[in-house]
Amino acid sequence: MKQALLFVGALICALFANAAIYYISPSGNDVSGNGTSALPWRTLSKATTTVTTVGDIIHVRPGTYIETVASNLAVGVNLEGEGVTSIIQSTLGGVNGWVLFLESATGSSTPGNQSVSNLKFDGRYVSESNRPSWGGIRITARENVEIKNCTITGFYDNGVVFS
């Protein structure tokens, strides 16, 4: 039994030993950036379409990010910021105007084994005549997802939905 537990522990360590950290910054560039600390991307959508390896981290530097398309965080990829100064703002409208999707590709339950932490999601909702974003985070058919230390404000209907 001890050998089996040691093997599982070693396997988990091996999976995360090669994890990389990728960066986005308001001064980054989605075309010439490569996600490194020195050459970050500008948008969350660019980072989530590029970073897909289990254990990797997308780090959101302080600043405001205006997102014009929804982002789908890959299974096992973590998203972290530096608190309420790392602000993801949405310009997405309508019932499909979610900022961040965490969804199973198969439609059945998928272990996410990931977290979203230390970020502020802002839907910029002001009034009925100005409701640009429907919801902040939607998690569908993905389990073991942790949302922690996030501020979610200004969305028309939902901040976080688990389904």
Q: How far apart are the first and last residues' alpha carbons, in Å?
A: 36 Å
**Total of helices:** 2
Structural class: mainly beta
* Topology as a string of helices (H) and strands (E): HEHEEEEEEEEEEEE
Mean pLDDT: 83
Determine the strand fraction and express it as a percent band. Answer: 35-45%
Question: Radius of gyration in whole Å, from Cα?
Answer: 16 Å
β-strand number: 13
Question: How can the largest sheet be summarized?
Answer: 5 strands, parallel
In the sheet with the most strands, the strands line up as 1-2-5-8-11
Low-pLDDT sequence parts: 4-16
Helix percent band:
10-25%
What's the overall geometry? globular
Quick gist of this model?
By secondary structure, the chain is mainly beta. It has two helices and 13 strands.
Kindly describe this structure.
The structure is a single chain. This protein has 163 residues and is mostly beta strands. It contains 2 helices and 13 strands; from the N terminus they run αβαββββββββββββ. Strands 1-2-5-8-11 form a 5-stranded parallel beta sheet, covered by helices on one side. A 4-stranded parallel beta sheet has the order 3-6-9-12, with no helix packed on it. A 4-stranded parallel beta sheet has the order 4-7-10-13. About 8% of the residues have low confidence.
